[in-house]
Design goal:
Layout: E1 24-25, E2 37-46, E3 49-57, E4 70-76, E5 83-90, E6 97-99, E7 104-109, E8 112-121, E9 127-134, E10 142-143, E11 165-168, E12 174-178, E13 185-189, E14 196-201, E15 209-218, E16 221-228, E17 242-248, E18 256-262, E19 272-277, E20 280-287, E21 299-305, E22 341-344, E23 373-374, E24 381-402, E25 413-419, E26 424-426, E27 441-458, E28 466-474
Antiparallel strand pairs: 1-5, 2-3, 3-4, 4-5, 6-8, 7-8, 8-9, 9-10, 11-12, 12-13, 13-14, 15-16, 16-17, 17-18, 19-20, 20-21, 22-24, 23-28, 24-27, 24-28, 25-26, 25-27
This protein binds beta-L-arabinofuranose.
Length: about 475
């Protein structure tokens, strides 16, 4: 972090509700939006949409401090062309806060979207972590707790309580990492996503941590990217920062430092997020690259991220063109589901297995207008399966989950398997199997030639699962 970015004075109290904005198309280049200045981007994939949540820099030219009062949302269907949805939260979202809408991140869980924010409270101390919640990625978001989740009075908290990153593991346990001013911290979150569980700890192994952690998982390995500002391979001027990363086999660490992901950018601060979308990996970060840009007038950019075969990350090449369009798929667009024979581990007597491949287009996860498949009262691992008389080449699938708000709920996890002639094995290189409600969750993978495709579904504890439509796309 730049020493220059410490604010001399707090910004004005903002009590207005989050602004409603008309979605406007943005450009396909870096920065991805130039109509306003944006910073601290946090990507999130929901179904076939890539969202970016970002703060808004409102500092005038020549200002020496941040002026940030709003958090905005952008979205893209291909990681290249962006729609700006306007401010979906602001300081007024948190009645107890008064200034400094700093870095944030949205994490989905159980059909809700939790927006963790860095914000200045009105009480004693400075920065806090707040959490807002909504039923959709675009809100409306409201304060989920009525007070800070983390503050200066939280035992063991950081010297600067900013920059939350929240990660929900496959077993349902959620983790919050945050911190600035060389003080990383970690704590478990309760299933309600708004309470902490157990002590705040200082994670080991985040070498040269300065601020801005970002956590994700790939291939069973946990990754933590974070801003550092050392001169030992990171930056030549400690007013600037790079993004280092570490890996761990346990979500609480210890972490092993692996190197630099993103070198110095044109703004002093360096804040980034990593996400997999339509089978490719991306880094979303900010710089001072927009016309009139600067350290307090930053802009969000997107570039491709590449992993080596051993799981290490290649240094990012920063571009002004941004990534090429990635609409997903790549096949001929034919859904092979309707031509398949469908079977299942269990279907409730009053539900309909035929629902999964009858070509319906659900309006939402409660929409039974084209029938619904459900496996109540079964819990744990269940499956649905397609069989074709001859082998089909498939590289993409999607699932629209059924949620009856009773015994059937969104699943905890899912995965796609194919029959390789002797057994079911995971489809190779599959992207995250999404469990979001009210959307088509797209899964991409390397093409397989098979007569059988299976969707394995693991329920949340105490619930069964269901599907409204399942697609298998020809490659
Ligand atoms: O945007 C305000 C602060 O600057 C963020 O919280 C930090 O990560 C840095 O980007």
């Amino acid at each position: 972090m730049s020493r220059r970015r410490w604010p001399a004075a707090m910004c004005a109290l903002v009590t207005a509700a989050a602004a409603t904005a008309v979605a406007t198309p943005a450009q396909a280049a870096n920065p991805i939006i130039t109509s306003i200045y944006t910073a601290d981007p946090a990507p999130l994939v929901v179904g076939d949409t890539l969202y970016v949540y970002a703060g808004r820099d409102e500092a005038p030219t020549g200002a020496g401090n941040f002026q940030m009062r709003e958090w905005h949302v952008l979205s893209s269907a291909d990681a290249a062309t962006w729609t700006h949805h306007g401010a979906k939260a602001n300081i007024g979202t948190f009645g107890w806060a008064g200034a400094d809408a700093w870095a944030s991140e949205v994490e989905p869980r159980n059909g809700k979207y939790y927006w963790y924010t860095s914000v200045n409270g009105n009480g004693p101390g400075w920065m806090n972590i707040g959490v807002a919640v909504a039923d959709s990625p675009l809100g409306p978001f409201t304060d989920a707790k009525g007070g800070p989740l983390i503050s200066d009075s939280t035992p063991g908290s950081s010297g600067l309580n900013i920059d939350p990153t929240v990660f929900v593991d496959d077993d349902g346990q959620a983790y919050l990492y945050w911190g600035g001013y060389w003080g990383p911290r970690a704590v478990r979150l309760a299933a309600n996503m708004t309470d902490t569980v157990g002590p705040v700890v200082t994670p080991a192994g985040l070498t040269d941590f300065w601020e801005a952690p970002w956590m994700f998982k790939r291939g069973g390995l946990y990754y933590m990217m974070y801003a550092a500002n050392d001169t030992g391979g990171c930056v030549t001027d400690t007013d600037y920062a790079c993004q280092r990363y570490a890996t761990a086999t346990d979500p609480m660490g210890p972490w092993t430092h692996r190197g630099v992901v993103l070198g110095q950018v044109s703004s002093t601060t360096n804040h980034a997020g990593i996400v997999e979308f339509n089978g490719q990996w991306y880094i979303v970060y900010h710089n001072a690259g927009a016309p009139g840009g600067g350290d307090f007038r930053r802009s969000v950019a997107v570039d491709r991220l590449y992993f080596n075969a051993d799981g290490t990350i290649q240094p990012v090449v920063q571009t002004t063109t941004g990534p090429p369009p990635n609409p997903g798929g790549g096949g001929d667009g034919t859904n092979l589901g309707p031509s398949a024979t469908v079977s299942t581990s269990h279907v409730s007597a009053w539900e309909h297995l035929a629902a999964v491949n009858n070509g319906g287009t659900p309006a939402g996860s409660q929409d039974r207008s084209n029938l619904a498949y459900g496996n109540w009262p079964q819990q744990g691992v269940q499956w649905i399966e397609y069989r074709w008389p001859t082998a089909k080449s498939i590289n993409r699938s999607s699932v629209y989950w059924f949620d009856d708000n009773q015994g059937i709920d969104l699943p905890a996890s899912c995965r796609l398997q194919y029959f390789n002639g002797s057994q079911y094995v995971p489809v190779p290189g599959q992207s995250t199997c999404g469990v979001a409600g009210n959307v088509e969750n797209v899964i991409t993978f390397s093409p397989v030639s098979t007569t059988r495709l299976r969707l394995q579904i693991t329920s949340r504890s105490g619930y069964s699962t269901g599907v409204l439509e399942w697609k298998a796309m020809q490659s």
